[in-house]
Input
Amino acid sequence: KILSICIPTYKRRVVLEQCLESILIQCQDKQIDRSIEIVILNDNPGDETSHYVKGLMKKHPNIRYIENKVRAGIIRGILQVPTYATGEYIWFFSDDDVQTIDAIATVLQAIKSAKPDTFLCNSNQFVDKPANITVTNCLNIEKDIVVKSKKAFFAKIEDKFPYAIDWYLYAFSSTIMRKKLFDNNRHVIDDQDEYSAMSFPHSNLIYYKAEDYTQYIGAKPIVLARMQNISWATKSKIETAVLFDQSQTRFYKHLF
Output
């Protein structure tokens, strides 16, 4: 396999179904079907998600499904899923986000042409339904960019974001990287005590290390990112905002 799409999930069967449908419809293309695998880690075994995915596996042999006997939590789940992947590249993907109809073809073509170490995906944002797009072209770029160092990466995109740059690197479904890079760098974030429950550690695999990598930044939005669906949010919007801010501050203080 060239690409492993790695999806951790926990008690979100309805949105996971939308996510997987957007991926599997692309697998009608036999070349895509042969080139990818979908690796799903369920942190809540034996639930309706389990029955749903096991049903899909009868029709789609490129789905790999793992259940945790003991709940790992989102952080360890994110780091656990790629350990089961067999593809040359891994795509961290959220169970509540959706792919565009040409997402996988776009990624495979970029991998074939540029052979990058990492791929940063552009996205649109939606609320409730994928058709309800609220923000387009989150990276705010018009053409693909290839860079070979972190310095060049930030020089190209740090003024492109409608949000602070840390918000986008913190997003979950935007990062694709070589499986070898994950395997070699996972040790830098093995100690998860320094992260809060909602902090996504996957971008640290690239930016916590001194090495430079060839990075491909895709201009075409291929991820539809679901907003206002944060499972750790509290009833108080202010309290949620404070938690999010504290998480990012801690996250990027260590990164810096």
Observations:
- The longest helix spans residues 237-255.
